[in-house]
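> call design_seq(struct)
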């Protein structure tokens, strides 16, 4: 082919330098490796956990039970006489004092009966006085033989019978006077009145049901509750039966943070065969009237106090077939520690062995942990830094403390989501 003639285009394509082809192949291989690296999964983040310090200190031994409030004293007010009700001196629900007038029954029939008995007694006393004078005269005549011995004995017998009649008249008069006083019905105790069953104009029957009203003494009140026989034996072992143990009461309805204290005052003398429990009662001053008869409460009977007890929240303990354990945080890693669980106390549990107090115990996130795994404390960074800027730039906000995670890292999207939470 002449030198001045150009080769065809297809011939030029296959006449490329081999070194350039090698360079192209290497470039494609490098691009493929880069794509593979970009598709690799990122490392799994460390689990976020919450911790609390295991505490060492006094722990009361408390027996918990359900109880009911009852008045210290309750009186069903009934009338001792029958008659027409002429006055009601109080209203339903009033606070009354001992001796205060509550009701008035028509006293006129009882006053008339009292006057009649007084007159009868005066007549009998006059007759007795005459009979005694006759017996004295007959005794003098009998000495001189003017009357027989039989007449003298009859005179003394008549005087004795009249003396007995006068004594009976005095008793009847005292009963009539008492009935007249009972027409005015007074409060036998201080307390709060209940519902009034009869109104003015009603006929009142003596000692009839229902009572006119009921008065409950609300200051103090009693808390009635039962404990199982096992807890009763523990109470006898730790405190005996003659010690005034402290009792804490929490109402079942209302402010559950309100705690009221009382003192154990009664222990029943037998175990209930049907339920296997022992009846106890505690007295509460109730000066603020926060407890009401019939109200249900939760009762805690404090037996003793265990000194230097190790306690953790109950949710920190993981129980398996091989025993119980907790997770500790040491050097940013989770450490599994076997423990021996003792008795519970509210939301806490006493550990008989395994911890000495002061350890950082994980209470949330244990289901994602293994012994020796790295962990991240909730509200802090994996590197322990105090700022949230790096946290916000990574695009992951701390869900438990999102405000803190977003406040320092406004430059990242994750920080914004944390702040919005």
């Amino acid at each position: 082919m002449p030198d001045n003639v150009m080769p065809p285009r297809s011939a030029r394509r296959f006449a490329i330098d081999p070194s350039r082809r090698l360079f192209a192949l290497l470039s494609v291989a490098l691009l493929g490796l880069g794509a593979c690296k970009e598709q690799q999964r990122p490392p799994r983040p460390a689990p976020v956990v919450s911790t609390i310090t295991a505490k060492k200190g006094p722990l009361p031994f408390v027996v918990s039970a359900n109880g009911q409030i009852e008045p210290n004293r309750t009186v069903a007010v009934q009338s001792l006489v029958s008659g027409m009700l002429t006055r009601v001196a109080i209203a339903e629900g009033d606070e009354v004092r001992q001796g205060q007038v509550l009701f008035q029954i028509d006293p006129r029939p009882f006053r008339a009966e009292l006057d009649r008995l007084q007159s009868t007694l005066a007549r009998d006393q006059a007759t007795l006085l005459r009979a005694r004078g006759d017996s004295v005269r007959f005794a003098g005549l009998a000495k001189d033989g003017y009357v027989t011995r039989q007449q003298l004995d009859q005179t003394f017998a008549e005087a004795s019978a009249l003396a007995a009649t006068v004594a009976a008249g005095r008793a009847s008069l005292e009963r009539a006077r008492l009935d007249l006083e009972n027409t005015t019905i007074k409060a036998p105790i201080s307390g709060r009145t209940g519902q009034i069953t009869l109104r003015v104009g009603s006929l009142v029957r003596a000692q009839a049901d229902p009572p006119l009203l009921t008065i409950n003494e609300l200051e103090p009140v009693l808390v009635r509750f039962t404990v199982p026989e096992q807890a009763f034996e523990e109470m006898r072992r730790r405190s005996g039966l003659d010690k005034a143990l402290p009792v804490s009461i929490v109402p079942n309805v209302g402010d559950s943070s309100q705690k009221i204290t009382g003192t154990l005052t009664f222990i029943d003398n037998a175990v209930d065969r049907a339920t296997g429990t022992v009846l106890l009662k505690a007295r509460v001053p109730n000066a603020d009237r926060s407890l009401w008869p019939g109200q249900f409460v939760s009762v805690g009977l404090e037996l003793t106090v265990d000194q230097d007890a190790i306690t953790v929240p109950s949710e920190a303990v993981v129980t398996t077939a091989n025993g119980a354990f907790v997770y500790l945080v040491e050097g940013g890693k989770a450490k599994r520690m076997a423990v021996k669980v003792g008795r519970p106390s509210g939301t806490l549990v006493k550990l008989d062995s395994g911890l000495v107090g002061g350890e950082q115990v994980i209470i949330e996130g244990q289901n994602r942990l293994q012994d020796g795994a790295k962990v991240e404390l909730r509200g802090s960074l994996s590197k322990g830094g105090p700022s949230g800027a790096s946290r916000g730039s990574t695009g992951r906000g701390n869900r438990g403390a999102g405000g803190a995670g977003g406040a320092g890292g406004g430059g990242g999207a994750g920080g914004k989501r944390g702040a919005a939470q």
